[in-house]
Write a structure and sequence with these properties.
With 337 residues, the chain is an alpha/beta fold. The protein is built from 13 helices and 10 strands.
Length: 337
């Protein structure tokens, strides 16, 4: 009886040790994270500096996935082909309302436009053109990157402030950001939105003048934040906290003025553009604001969503607070104190 009992205990102990070994050697959780713009979306250069991140390849394995825009992200998030979407005030409510993603949760902030003391996207006209004030845009053709995008909403909001009906008093054409400078110079349009890094183009600056900024139209805007579905969060909470800890580490590294020169070199290598393209603005107050603790501006987010309703893009507003789960990024930030 004693031998049998010992064998049972030994077998149980071996099973327990085996289970520990399997856990220790388990594959890291795969996390597919969306991005749109190189460098501006830090996911593209998150692991470019050795020694900053601690958990990639251990508890999680991040796979950055490029998307042209938010519509495809919403579809991928709904189908399970994407784990973390990069949405903003102009796209998130459509994920909830049209994509039926009522379980979507905002887990960390990425970039804000027009935060006090920081960059805001601009809308420019030709220096030698006929537009000198917003009222002069009535009856003209304007450019946007996509109907319902953040810059599109801001442009329409500014027009409405100055008594111009965006649905009746102007013509709006869609164009890719890289093509807008030529369209303005060739007088195909009278106004274009200019976002980083295109707003730093020396030739564009020489030929154009800023008519207004997105901040002038809307105040601070929530341009980008990470969104995951509740089920994925519940299944992979520990791995996501580790990912967000690394994300905060990287954000703080890049935005530290002591690392500016190195950040510019990393950006240049990652984008295959000259360092001079980035040196004057990247990760400074001439860039979008990045909260060091990953906290979104909820008031700005709600204001942006309400703008969508006011302009007829959204049938009814949603309460942004209902879709926040900032407990993960708070836990991650607490580790860095």
């Amino acid at each position: 009886m004693r031998t049998s009992s010992c064998l049972c205990v030994s077998s149980a102990l071996l099973l327990f040790i085996g289970a520990i070994g399997q856990t220790a050697n388990a594959d890291p959780t795969k996390v597919r994270v969306a991005w749109i713009v190189p460098v501006t979306n830090i996911a593209t250069i998150m692991f470019a500096k050795d020694g900053v991140t601690k958990h990639n390849g251990r508890s999680y394995a991040m796979e950055p996935i490029r998307f042209q825009g938010s519509t495809a992200m919403i579809t991928a998030l709904a189908s399970g082909d994407l784990d973390v979407a990069l949405l903003g005030f102009s796209s998130f409510p459509f994920a909830v309302e049209n994509g039926r993603l009522d379980d979507a949760r905002i887990i960390t902030d990425e970039i804000q436009d027009g935060a006090p003391g920081y960059y805001s996207q601009v809308f420019v006209v030709r220096k030698d053109g006929p537009i000198h004030k917003v009222e002069d845009l009535k009856g003209r053709t304007l450019a946007t990157n996509a109907f319902g995008s953040a810059v599109d909403i801001a442009m329409r909001a500014m027009l409405m402030k100055h008594g111009i009906d965006p649905k009746k008093d102007i013509t709006v054409v869609e164009a890719a950001f890289p093509n807008m400078k030529a369209m303005l110079a060739e007088q195909k349009v009278e106004l274009i939105p200019s976002v980083l890094p295109f707003s730093e183009d020396a030739q564009l600056k020489e030929q154009s003048t800023v008519l207004f900024s997105q901040k002038d139209a809307m105040g601070t805007s929530e341009l980008g934040f990470w969104v995951a579905r509740q089920g994925f969060i519940d299944r992979n909470r520990a791995a996501l906290v580790d990912l967000l800890e690394d994300y905060l580490r990287v954000t703080r590294f890049y935005t530290d003025p002591a690392h500016h020169a190195e950040a510019v070199q990393i950006a240049a290598a990652g984008s295959k553009l000259p360092p001079a393209v980035f040196d004057n603005w990247l990760f400074t107050n001439k860039d979008y604001y990045r909260d060091p603790n990953g906290m979104p501006n909820v008031e700005a987010l709600q204001s942006g969503i309400d703008q969508l309703v006011g302009q007829g893009f959204l049938a009814s507003t949603i309460d942004a607070r209902k879709y926040l789960d900032l407990s993960l990024v708070r836990e991650a930030a607490e580790r860095l104190k």
